[in-house]
Design goal:
This protein has 15 helices and 17 strands. By secondary structure, it is of the alpha/beta class. The chain is globular, with a radius of gyration of 21 Å.
Length: 400
Amino acid sequence: MEQVMKAKNYMEEADQILMHTYSRFQIVLDKGEGVYLYDMEGKKYLDFAAGIAVFALGYGNQQYNDALKLQIDKLLHTSNLYYNVPMIEAAKKFVKASGMDRVFFTNSGTEAIEGAIKLARKYYYKKKGDAGSEIISMNHSFHGRSMGALSITGTKKYREAFEPLIGGVAFAEYNDLESVKAQIKENTCAIIMEPVQGEGGIYPAEQAFIEGVRKLCDDNDILLIFDEIQCGMGRTGEMFAYQKYGVKPDIITSAKALGCGVPVGAFAATQKVAKAFEPGDHGTTYGGNPFATAAVSKVFDIFDSEKLLEHVNEVAPYLYEKLEELVDKYDIIKEHRGIGLMQGLEFTIPVKDIILKAVDAGLIIISAGANIIRFVPALIIEKSHVDEMVEILDGVLKSI
């Protein structure tokens, strides 16, 4: 009873002092272990959200924790006026895994998007001597909350209250190549897209579409930017989702599972594009600090040593199969979409009550829009965890 009151008091205090930008679940999470979370009252939750696709390694990975503890005792921050070893090690591993040539570390995914936008526009400026470039983005996309990232986010509800945003942005239909063609102009500098749309409803790109966009970029000297913030870092069974398609971009953005809990992002580019940046064009005080990049470096090590990509490709088909069984069982499930451990169920009704009842039953799941449940668990889940999730969700759906 005492812990219940403490949790209630914490939530009441939070509602008084924090800005009301989130509709939080009425639980205070206290600790995590593997793929489970525990609240202050000791209640256990199976987590199929992973901090919105962040905790790829699950909670409490000892190798990861030890690496961060060691770095805390050595050096947390130096600024980018100096070199540091963790940043260099992380950069080597990132460019090797991505196939890019140069990387810039940021503090978040949104900042990675901002950097990608700036790099694309600087590349165009150096090529044309003209600053009036335009970027094509996709409808229903989501790229972040800052003013630049909002400007290329193709979902009106995120943008309209904050307009005017930055100009020079056009929107095309995802998986519709003719729509993209129609938006190309002489001053188009880049096309940005998520290989798998996340917030927009778990929509994977079609093979012909992603190949067609690459060809459009090649034919028109336009840069192709892939936003891999949510769908990257092993979630699709490849380190980056574009590798599943066999199509290489000119610029990529990364975050979320890149740091597995430590706030860090990155954007990377081919040498041809990256050399457009010169000293003074871009910067960040905290980006690339030893603590964050020690996390990035260790994440890549653990992906390799634990063979996480192979594990995703083993367990993901089982998750897909079990979700298909729910589709067959319930008429309120309209469609099932996804790749790897990034799956979505679209319902004919709003999913808010389903998610709340799931939390009450000990399962954490999240939405992607009003009527889509998104499944983005830690990459370490086993088939037994899939069975546990489906059993809980099945019980909830029976009560709807």
